[in-house]
Amino acid sequence: MKLLFKILFFVLAIFQTNIGEASIFILDEVIETPNFFVPESNENNEEVSSVILEGGINITCKSELDLVDYRNLVLGYNANAAKGGGNAFRYMSQAELKAIQETGYLRGGLSGETYFTKDLYKSAAKAQSRLSLGSSPALRVEFEILNNPTLLRNGTKVLPANGMIGRGAEFMTTDLVKVRLINWQPFR
């Protein structure tokens, strides 16, 4: 019961902060807990983690002023999601991976819309379906964003397209996205 109140209070605090995108997805395809996408240099990380993880929510908001402080803490924590940093995924071909390795930029530094997600899919079919991709990807590539691209879509739900159902979460920018590759896995 105590956990239920903590979760409810946390969700309530998020919705009251007027964050443009505050979504909680419970999908069978998303097999990893959400990565908050916050650079490690954020001084609020430790404080927020202790409030959320150590059960501090029930003692944080004993008065209206405490609630405002907590809301500001959540707002500051989530505002960093649009600043880059953190890990994300892109589902792609071998040729695109080679272009990233050569240039250090997603899509090999090509101009135009660049999409990525925080959702980790186990199969090419699930990635193609949930992200409405035109073709089946050969690889799942995990990377860290090193610059601060302006996000025009920030965790937006993917719409059905290309005969696929969509409903995954997508991020999109028209800026170049400088990355450090962490891992890549071919699909079987």
Q: Mind explaining what this structure looks like?
A:
The chain has 188 residues and is of the alpha+beta class. Helices cover 32% and strands 18% of the residues. It is built from six helices and six strands; from the N terminus they run H-H-H-H-E-H-E-H-E-E-E-E. The chain has helices at residues 2-15, 45-53, 57-60, 64-79, 94-103, 124-131; strands at 87-92, 114-116, 139-145, 153-157, 169-173, 179-186. The protein has a three-stranded antiparallel sheet. A three-stranded antiparallel sheet has the order 2-5-4, with no helix packed on it. The chain starts with a helix and ends with a strand. Mean pLDDT is 74; it is low at 17-84.
What brief labels describe this structure?
188 residues; 6 helices; 18% strand; alpha+beta; three-stranded antiparallel beta sheet
How would you summarize what this structure contains?
With 188 residues, the protein is α+β, with helices and mostly antiparallel strands. It contains six helices and six strands; from the N terminus they run ααααβαβαββββ.
Secondary-structure topology with pairs:
Elements: H1 2-15, H2 45-53, H3 57-60, H4 64-79, E1 87-92, H5 94-103, E2 114-116, H6 124-131, E3 139-145, E4 153-157, E5 169-173, E6 179-186
Antiparallel strand pairs: 1-3, 2-5, 3-6, 4-5
Secondary-structure element series: HHHHEHEHEEEE
> What's the count of strands?
6
Count of alpha/pi helices: 6
Q: How does the major sheet shape up?
A: 3 strands, antiparallel
Q: So what's the overall shape?
A: globular
Q: Segments where pLDDT lies below 50 for 5+ residues?
A: 17-84
> How helical, in percent, are the residues?
25-40%
Radius of gyration (CA) equals 18 Å
For the terminal residues, how far apart are their CA atoms?
43 Å
Mean pLDDT across all amino acids: 74
Oligomer status: single chain
Strand content: 15-25%
Strand order of the largest sheet: 1-3-6
Look at the helices and sheets and give the structural class: alpha+beta
